[in-house]
């Protein structure tokens, strides 16, 4: 195992900060000195030479600790992860802590939530849907196609005739203009719908 060096730890910290920009702070803790030895993109009001306080953390055996969350000095949320570097004899040498400020992401989430639709009521407005045959027909046709792995706008003749027959048997086509509506759904003429019904009925009669 190569010996971790202070220069390598600092170069790693600088590279991570350079890649991810100003919202990421990377801190190198010298565990022998129990001090902060290097900071790239400082944003946590800490300085080089400050106590690390790493003795308060159970480093364990895993080389990676986290991700975990903590609160920054200004109340913002940081998502953090720490990388433990050991010497060849197994003793801990450095910890590289990567702190990602979540402020921009949380702001985007709030914007997305504000622009999103209002939450649905827990109870469906059955009084509105009860007599809306369009919704009932849409639900039936959608479920029928989904169960068979088909698309409503790409049905072959045989599948279309089966669907039309089942819609007719359920009474869905009894509504005024229902046949024209179904014709638009499946991409054929209303006359084709009636021909499908006729062919279906003649087939059932044989």
Structure description:
With 206 residues, this protein is α+β, with helices and mostly antiparallel strands. Helix content is 42%, strand content 20%. A five-stranded antiparallel β-sheet has the order 2-1-5-4-3, covered by helices on one side. A hairpin with a 4-residue loop joins strand 1 and strand 2. The longest helix has 16 residues, at 133-148. The radius of gyration is 33 Å and the shape is rod-shaped. It comes from Sulfitobacter dubius.
Characteristic key phrases:
plasmid; rod-shaped; 206 residues; five-stranded antiparallel beta sheet; single chain; DauR-like; alpha+beta; YheO; Transcriptional regulator DauR; 7 helices; 42% helix
Share of β-strand residues: 15-25%
Q: Let me know the average pLDDT.
A: 82
Number of E strands: 5
**What spatial order of strands do you see in the largest sheet?**
2-1-5-4-3
Rg: 33 Å
- Which spans of ≥5 residues are poorly predicted at pLDDT below 50? 123-130
> How is the biggest beta sheet arranged?
5 strands, antiparallel
- In N-to-C order, the SSE pattern is HEEEEEHHHHHH
Query: What distance separates the N and C termini?
Result: 82 Å
Q: How would you sum up the global shape?
A: rod-shaped
Pfam family, one: HTH_22
Keywords: Plasmid
Protein name: Transcriptional regulator DauR
InterPro entries: DauR-like (IPR039446), DauR-like_HTH (IPR039445), YheO (IPR013559)
């Amino acid at each position: 195992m190569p010996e971790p060096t202070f220069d390598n730890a600092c170069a790693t910290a600088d590279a991570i900060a350079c890649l991810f920009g100003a919202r990421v702070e990377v801190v190198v803790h010298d565990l022998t000195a129990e001090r902060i030895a290097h900071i790239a993109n400082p944003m946590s009001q800490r300085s080089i030479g400050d106590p690390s306080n790493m003795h308060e953390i159970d480093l364990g055996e895993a080389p990676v600790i986290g991700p975990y969350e903590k609160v920054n000095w200004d109340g913002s949320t940081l998502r953090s992860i720490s990388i433990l570097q050991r010497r060849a004899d197994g003793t801990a040498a450095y910890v590289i802590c990567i702190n990602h400020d979540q402020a921009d992401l949380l702001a985007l989430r709030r914007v997305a939530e504000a622009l999103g639709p209002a939450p649905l009521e827990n109870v469906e407005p059955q009084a509105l849907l009860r007599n809306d045959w369009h919704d009932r027909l849409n639900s039936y046709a959608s479920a029928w196609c989904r169960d068979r792995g088909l698309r409503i706008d790409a049905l072959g003749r045989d599948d279309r005739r089966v669907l039309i027959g089942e819609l007719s048997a359920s009474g869905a086509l009894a509504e005024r203009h229902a046949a024209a509506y179904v014709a638009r759904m499946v991409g054929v003429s209303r006359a084709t719908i009636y021909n499908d019904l006729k062919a279906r009925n003649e087939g059932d009669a044989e």
